[in-house]
Design goal:
mainly beta; 4-stranded antiparallel β-sheet
Length: about 300
């Protein structure tokens, strides 16, 4: 999670999913230095969601390994170096599908479980000013393999509803949008991307979506229309694509390789090869993209920065 000046890195899993963690650190880009976080009041977990409010990092939910999922959360304030627990949320334990910061609330929605998600259409929003949660209206459909962006007006969740064998109940990926002002959902128009794995990023005007088959499209929420984009210029691999914004461009990341979309011309360019292995998730950090994490189990953690 990027706070505007630091990378917040907490929790996670190692030893082939055998060990969950409850510690973390922040990396200050200006000083190029790591600093350990104080002890958290949360139990060890991975797959928690997090948002930056401008003052605090809010963390909620996640996976506790063999003990199941969590339904609690906490806030960390970098200025004071202090944690505080969030009040109980009106949600069951889970690894949420989506979490966004609207400017006044953290919206948490969905469940990544492929056994429970047929009935997990609910979500909740937390307001730090009042220190209270509210329940969202139920979504029109569940999604468990999806990603979300905040457009300034809506949370758009795009992906698919998969079973335990990665079969989708629709031919293509699908999307839904939530407006917190009206507490209402809408289905977004269809576009032929693969349902098994996709990723989205917001460029300030459109949602840029791509799938693991390297197809891509741009969605305009104001018009509810899609524009076809050229295929991502990378080799097909069966991995989960990730994407992030870096200034005026979008970075698409596939199995350790990347491409950059020039959104002014809708042209992709291949990223230069990384000088070492990294499979860290891309994190938007202003004009650069950060890649924190280990390349694989047992490898030393690393942090890479890419500036288009």
């Amino acid at each position: 999670m990027w706070t505007g000046r630091e990378l917040f890195y907490w929790g996670g899993v190692t030893n082939y999913s055998g060990t969950q963690h409850a510690d973390g650190a922040v990396y200050e880009a200006a000083g190029r230095a790591w600093k350990r976080l104080p002890a958290s009041p949360l139990g060890a977990r991975s797959s928690a969601v997090a948002v930056w409010t401008g003052r605090e990092v809010l963390v909620w939910g996640g996976w506790a390994g063999g003990e199941g999922e969590w339904s609690d959360g906490a806030a960390f304030e970098p200025a004071s170096g202090k944690w505080r627990m969030l009040p109980p949320a009106p949600l069951s334990p889970r690894q949420p599908v989506a979490a966004v910061w609207t400017g006044s609330e953290m919206i948490v929605w969905g469940d990544r479980s492929r056994s429970r998600s047929a009935e997990q259409r609910e979500g909740a929003a937390y307001d730090p000013a009042s220190n209270e949660w509210r329940t969202l209206a139920p979504a029109p459909q569940p999604l468990n393999e999806a990603n979300a962006v905040w457009t300034g007006k809506e949370m758009i969740v795009f992906g698919a509803h998969l079973d335990g064998n990665s079969w989708s109940d629709t031919v293509h990926a699908q999307g839904i949008a939530y407006n917190p002002e009206t507490d209402a959902w809408r289905a977004i128009s269809a576009y032929p991307l693969a349902p098994q794995a996709s990723s989205v990023a917001w460029n300030g005007k459109e949602v840029i979506a791509s799938d693991y088959e390297l197809k891509a499209g741009a969605y305009d929420p104001a018009r509810d229309t899609w524009t076809r984009l050229p295929d991502v210029p990378l080799r097909f691999s069966e991995c989960y694509p990730k994407s992030a914004r870096a200034g005026e461009v979008i970075v698409a990341w596939f199995c350790g390789w990347g491409a950059i979309l020039d959104t002014s011309k809708d042209i992709w360019h291949r990223m230069p090869a990384v000088k070492g292995e990294t499979f860290g998730r891309p994190v938007s950090a202003g004009s650069v993209v950060l890649f924190p994490g280990a390349a694989y189990e047992g490898a030393t953690n690393a942090l890479w920065a890419f500036k288009p």
